[in-house]
Amino acid sequence: MGCHKHRDDFDNDDLRQRSESCVREVVRAIRDIQDAKEDDDCRDCKDCFAEPLGDLDGPRRRNADTRVITLTTKEGKPFFAFFDPAEADDNDHCRTGCVSIFFRVEDVFDSGCARLRVLLPLDHDFDPVNLADDGDISLKKVCKVENFKKTRSCVTVDLNDFLAVQCIKDVDLNVCR
After folding, report:
1. Which Pfam families does this chain map to (predicted)?
2. Where are the beta strands (DSSP E) in the chain?
3. 65, 174 in Cβ contact below 8 A?
4. Are 167 and 56 in contact (CB under 8 A)?
């Protein structure tokens, strides 16, 4: 699956209908992989297109239902969204902001938009990690994140507004159970 964002082998009328941004293609593929949950042999390539779900981490996680992603804005910064403080199970965690840069793809629309579930970042001990740092995201705190918890908070985004998508980890969040 290649990126067709800069293709010029068809006229402008066809360009908009037949061309997608790289981010949009990757997010759509992730959604399809999450939906399929195939059980093929392991593959060597460990990127966002790695199948089946659970194969991104090396040793296969057969029970994975989510490929955790981050998005990078056109300004080169991590995209973040808010979640309900009650979902953090830690009153101190959200004093300065309940934000996350980690998401699960819930749906991708033909318009180029996607609905993403905000994931609560957790450390090694499954304690919440507060990523907020004076109105921005602390990249040092991001390095402490090892686990994730689903939230009930979702955000709808225009995938054409992002420069990059990064797949972080395949995890089981009990999304459908």
Report:
1. Spore-coat_CotZ (PF10612)
2. 66-73, 81-82, 99-100, 103-108, 113-122, 132-133, 136-137, 147-158, 162-171
3. yes
4. yes
Domains of the chain: total: 1
Q: How confident is the model at residue 52 (pLDDT cuts 50, 70, 90)?
A: low
> Is residue 8 assigned to a domain?
no
Please give the structure tokens belonging to residue 60. 């296969």
Q: What is the model's pLDDT at position 13?
A: 46
Given a cut of 80, is residue 83 above it in pLDDT?
yes
**Residue type at position 100:** S
Q: How confident is the model at residue 175 (pLDDT cuts 50, 70, 90)?
A: confident
Residue 115 domain boundaries: 22-171
> According to the model, what pLDDT value does residue 63 have?
78
Q: Is 117 helix (H, G, I), strand (E, B) or coil?
A: strand
**CA-to-CA separations, 158 to 2, 17, 90, 123, 162, in angstroms, rounded:** 20, 16, 31, 29, 8
Residue 146 inside a domain? The answer is yes
What's the pLDDT at 91?
56
Is 11 within a domain? no
Residue 120 within any structural domain of the chain: yes
